Amino acid sequence: MNHGEFLISFLIDLQRVFRTKVVPTDLPYSQVQAIIIIPSDGIEMSELSLTLGLDNSTVTRLVERLEVKGFVKRKKNKLDKRSIIVSLKKKGMSIQKSIEKKLDEIGEQIFFETNQSQKEISLENLSSFQWKLRKTFLKR
Predict the structure, then answer these.
(1) With bands split at pLDDT 50, 70 and 90, how would you rate the model's confidence at 140?
(2) pTM for this one?
(3) What is the pLDDT confidence band of residue 74, given thresholds at 50, 70 and 90?
(4) Strand bridging mode 43-44 / 72-76
(5) 88 DSSP β-pair partners
(6) Would you say 49 and 55 are in contact if contact means Cβ atoms under 8 Å apart?
């Protein structure tokens, strides 16, 4: 398997697991992606757009839907009144924690029969892969 085939296969497998095992049935995939990205202290709309890889207008509509559902709130940035900070409300934090718990459980299932040193090597390799991916293609 070459690198391109591996990346496609890895992406498809991760998305399938995420969509079938992690995403709540009452929320669209894109809304869940936004919820898990938003840190506890909030994120600027432009940064959220960059992280999601979507246009500002698309993210604005996405955040508006999340706001109507009671998952997030928007407020002007105190330091820069031109920008908007999106932060999670209690309902959004609850969903985020639930998703993180499910992801931890999936990780445990994947590594259940793996000894500790192999787990550490796998996590180190995945971390290295992600770092290289970000360094190569996701420069800011």
Answers:
(1) low
(2) 0.81
(3) very high
(4) unpaired
(5) 72
(6) yes
- CA 17 – CA 21 distance, rounded (Å): 5
Chain position carrying tokens 């591996």: 6
**What is the length of the chain?**
140
Token representation of residue 6: 């591996």
Locate tokens 């996590």: which residue?
123
What kind of architecture, by CATH, is found in domain 3-137? Orthogonal Bundle (1.10)
Amino acid in position 106: I
Task: Identify any residues that bridge with 44 across adjacent strands, giving them in sequence order.
Answer: 85
Q: Are 45 and 56 in contact (CB under 8 A)?
A: yes
Instruction: State the pLDDT at residue 110.
Output: 85
Joined tokens for residue 116: 């500790």
The CA distance from 82 to 2, in Å, is 46
Which stretches does DSSP call E strand in the chain? 43-44, 72-76, 84-88
Strands 84-88 and 43-44: antiparallel
Helix (H, G, I), strand (E, B) or coil at 42: coil
Q: Are 85 and 74 in contact (CB under 8 A)?
A: yes
